[in-house]
Amino acid sequence: MAVWETIAGWMWYSAIFILSAVLILFACYCLYIKYIHQKYDHIPGPPRKSFLFGHGPIFVEEMKRDRLVHEKFLEWTEKYGPVYRLNVLHYVTVVTVDPEATKEILMSPKYPKDPTVYKRLFNLFGQRFLGNGLVTVADHDLWYKQRRIMDPAFSSSYLRGLMGIFNEKAERLMVKLAEMADKQTPAHMHGLVNCVTLDVITKVAFGVDLDMVNNNNLPFPNAIELCLKGMVYYLRDPMYEFLPWNRKVVQDIKEAAHLLRRTGRAWINERKKAMDNGEDVPKDILTQIFKSAEETKFDDDSQELMLDNFVTFFIAGQETTANQLSFAIMELGKHPEIMKRLKAEVDEVLGKRQEILYEDLGKLTYLSQVLKETLRLYPTAPGTSRWVDDDMVIDGIKIPGGFVVLFDSYITGRLDRFYKDPLTFDPERFAPDAPKPYFCYYPFALGPRSCLGQVFSQMEAKVVMAKLLQRFDYSLAPGQPLDIEDIGTLRPRGGVICRMKQRD
Predict the structure, then answer these.
(1) Pick from 122, 121, 51, 61: which is nearest to 87 by CA?
(2) Residue 30 annotated as binding site
(3) Average per-residue pLDDT for the chain
(4) How do strand 497-502 and strand 187-188 relate by DSSP bridges?
(5) Are strands 383-388 and 403-408 parallel, antiparallel or unpaired?
(6) Which has more confidence, 143 or 332?
(7) How far apart are CA 487 and CA 226, in angstroms?
């Protein structure tokens, strides 16, 4: 009996000691948060919702109400000015639209990507997701090595050779739309252009022909959407995965991420087998992914890095282009006078010729303006962030080092300090003789970490839009929502439902 009393007493004192230690550590952490608040509270900003979680609960509330968090950022910018502060736990984020700070930070390799955000996307609820892929890797040397290897797959000479694939995949969509026009079936344009961009990236990047336009029962679009939504939950609500009612959604997201990596593993192994057998393989992204791992043996680590880049290109190579096309189709439906002018340009450049040549793209100048204006109002990947280690002065405010700076092109595109009547869709803002925006327009980011595939994306968008306008008249179905859905990227909420009619 005495032994059990001794053990019970020891367990009791141990529990008290552990609890005391936890409380002391928590008190020290709270003091540290208080110190951080005092260090940065000279910077204007909205009131914190919570001492411990700072502005985090506001982001969670916006997400639960299915509202666009970038609208909240825009509201705060208009209220607090071009530089303001946000707190979450002991992290400090400075949001700025100051063009000089944008130029200095984004154009310099001195400022790495924010490790807090991008390292968190290494996994998605415990399932490896983007890992150390080209977009998320924070280490500059590792990024530079991967970027240098990937560059040939996006050279102008290589992209010129992709026009046949762009035409072929876009033509499948035109055939599908012609069938829907004949049957007077409403066309859900976002889903359809999503299939086209997915067809293009899988063929161009990985040598696989999915034909999603005519085979839309494949799981990839749903898996990509689940992963993108999972990124939002994972980044904006740290408690999301621990709430029991979210367990099913979390499991679905993990399975979606696993599906993408499993698909990548199968395609990579198939390509490796072809290379080992001495077969000719295209100099596509998948070949470059192999080169990025050739300095190491074909072991588990190098395979995981290849899968990181596979998932990165699989998602980034189609999602943002599809969203841009959807928003452009939506805005043209709202502005028939702009659509009429654009059709006249397409008719002048192409006539009745259905095959679009590389040389045609440069002649479609008004289409370029429309696509740029679309990205001004609807930047499909609206934000990027950098880590600032040293003290810095932004717009006259001295900011101590050790903070994250957030650049949001959704905000800059909708501020009247940069654009007259910013909510008006006006492609003339990007006319050849119009003044260029000064470091307030960066839908593909800026500087060394800008989007590698931006030229690829705009070539593809031009081919799809030119074919669509050459062959069809369309109008937006009445009553559908025309606002924005935030799933990490921005997309039209209603899917852009159109009534199609073939042109004479």
Answers:
(1) 51
(2) no
(3) 86
(4) antiparallel
(5) antiparallel
(6) 332
(7) 9
Is 298's pLDDT higher than 50? no
Report field, pTM of the whole predicted structure over 0.85? yes
CA–CA dist 63, 51 (Å, integer): 20
What does the alpha-carbon distance between residue 159 and residue 283 come to, in Å, rounded to a whole number?
A: 11
Residue with tokens 């009534």: 499
Q: State the amino acid at position 487 in one-letter form.
A: I
Q: 3-state SS of 456-488?
A: HHHHHHHHHHHHHHHHEEEEECCCCCCCEEEEC
pLDDT tens track for 314-354: 888 778 899 999 999 999 999 999 999 999 999 999 999 99
How far is the C-alpha of 160 from the C-alpha of 145, rounded, in Å? 25
Burial (Cβ within 10 Å: 0-12, 13-18, ≥19) of residue 95: buried
Asked if residue 350 lies in contact with residue 360, where contact means CB atoms within 8 angstroms, the answer is yes
Q: What pLDDT digit, counting tens, does each position of 64-118 carry? A: 888 888 999 999 999 999 999 999 888 899 999 999 999 999 999 889 888 877 7
Is the per-residue pLDDT at 403 higher than 80?
yes
Query: Which residues make Cβ contacts (< 8 Å) with residue 72, sequence separation at least 6?
Result: 58, 59, 62
Residue 445, pLDDT > 80, answer yes
Whether the Cβ atoms of residue 158 and residue 172 lie closer than 8 Å to each other? no
From the options 1.10.630.10, 1.10.10.10, 3.30.200.20, 3.30.1330.10, give the CATH code of 41-502: 1.10.630.10
Q: Are 109 and 117 in contact (CB under 8 A)?
A: no
Ranges of each domain in the chain: 1-40, 41-502
Q: Give me the half-sphere count of Cα atoms (radius 13 Å) on the Cβ side of residue 296.
A: 12
- Average of per-residue pLDDT across 423-450: 91
Within 10 angstroms of residue 141's Cβ, the number of other Cβ atoms is: 8
Chain-centre distance for alpha carbon 148: 22
Q: Which amino acid is at 332?
A: L
Integer angstrom CA distances of residue 395 from 4, 83, 438: 68, 7, 15
Phi/psi at 54 (nearest 5 deg)? 60, -125
In the block, residue with structure tokens 């499909």: 380
pLDDT at 448 over 90: no
Under 8 Å between Cβ of 102 and 442: yes
